[in-house]
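Hi V.,

Quick status before I head out on leave. The structure for the redesign project is tokenized and pasted below; the design run finished overnight.
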């Protein structure tokens, strides 16, 4: 990944509660049947950010766990190490280590011994070639792979506005943009991942995992909306003054607690057959 698409620690902290509420718990039930009954469960978390996936998942698993967290951002790895999960659901200890890596260049031997591979809010930032390599690397380990919160490109704002669809289309085009020599997959990524794992013989399940942001999440809704609209305008500057008035109107609704947002994602579990 030669050009960086970076998520800041403040944004990751703001979204963590919504991420936790959105992830599909039924896929965790399926994961448990594949984990070792004795010994330490080793989990490799790819693109870990500040470690929110571990904080969500480790307390939902039983037995001692060791999490190996990968990211290319040293600051995020430091934060992940400073705020690890405290214990498994049965009180067993959870330990962590961090590795600064480009996860699209991992070799299967780096994941040797993994009982589970995880990632969250990652796939849309990859190109087709990067995703293909990552899927092949993960599938080669022969353990379950749980990837959560992949965007689908569908957004619903309530109350609706005639300009919503124009912004959605522009934002999705931005998600699929070409940056340097890289063409990002954006909302096409989760479908490509399903196809890739299936071709390699895995059993693949997906479940919806939407963000549902209402009056209790006004700060996140406003931050998400601001970034969503800015990316749309960057992609299609012709949205122009209409986007400015639209943004003011929508942010006023959010501040007043009158705007609800649903951002659709899908979670994916690939299991060896």
């Amino acid at each position: 990944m030669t050009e960086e698409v970076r998520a800041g620690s403040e944004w990751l902290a703001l979204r963590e509660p919504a991420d936790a509420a959105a992830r599909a718990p039924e896929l965790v039930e399926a994961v448990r049947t594949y984990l070792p009954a004795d010994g330490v469960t080793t989990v490799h978390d790819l693109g870990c950010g500040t470690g929110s996936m571990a904080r969500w998942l480790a307390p939902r698993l039983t037995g001692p766990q060791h999490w190996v967290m990968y990211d290319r951002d040293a600051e995020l790895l430091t934060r992940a190490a400073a705020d690890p999960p405290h214990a498994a659901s049965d009180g067993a200890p959870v330990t962590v280590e961090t590795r600064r890596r480009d996860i699209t260049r991992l070799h299967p031997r780096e994941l040797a011994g993994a009982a589970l591979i995880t990632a969250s809010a990652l796939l849309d930032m990859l190109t087709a070639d990067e995703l293909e390599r990552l899927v092949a690397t993960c599938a080669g380990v022969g353990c379950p792979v749980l990837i959560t919160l992949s965007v689908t490109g569908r957004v619903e704002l309530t109350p609706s506005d005639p300009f919503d669809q124009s912004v959605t289309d522009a934002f999705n085009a931005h998600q699929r943009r070409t940056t340097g020599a890289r063409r990002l997959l954006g909302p096409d990524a989760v479908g490509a991942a399903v196809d890739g794992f299936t071709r390699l013989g895995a059993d693949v399940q997906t479940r919806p995992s939407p963000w549902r942001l209402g009056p209790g999440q006004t700060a996140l809704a406003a931050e998400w909306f601001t970034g969503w609209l800015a990316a749309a305008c960057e992609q299609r500057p012709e949205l122009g003054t209409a986007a400015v008035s639209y943004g003011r109107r929508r942010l006023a609704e959010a501040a007043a607690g009158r705007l609800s947002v649903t951002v659709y994602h899908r979670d994916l579990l690939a299991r060896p057959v």
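Above is the designed sequence. The longest helix spans residues 218-235.

G. will cover questions while I'm gone.

Best,
W.
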